[in-house]
Amino acid sequence: MSDEELRGWEYVCTEGELLPGEKITIWHDDTPILVVNLDGEYYAVEDKCTHEDFELSSGPVDAATGQIECVLHGARFCLKSGEALSPPAYSPVAKFPVKRLNGAIWTRDDR
Ligand code: FES
Hints:
The protein is an all-beta fold. The chain has one domain: Rieske Iron-sulfur Protein, CATH 2.102.10. It is built from no helices and 10 strands. The chain has a 4-stranded antiparallel beta sheet, with no helix packed on it. Strand 6 and strand 7 form a beta hairpin. The two termini are 25 Å apart. It binds FE2/S2 (inorganic) cluster.
């Protein structure tokens, strides 16, 4: 694994630690990033509901539809695109890249 390939990326966990349907939140600088495993594919979004900045990771993931629901007021978001799917949230959550390298998962805030 070269240092150059991982410059700017944040380590999440090994692939074996995040099974299908599971989620984990890590911090990259000041950004909380929620990483989920949907049927073997990994997706990352900001762990912050765009309605009132509540942590999305407290809510349930629906692996079949690829959605997460905010437990505070029930807004739903697409974990693959970040799109807000139901009120009271109307703005998408930030979506971040995910990289798999040498059995580990990496992400970063690329804004
Ligand atoms: S804070 Fe998430 S729906 Fe209100």
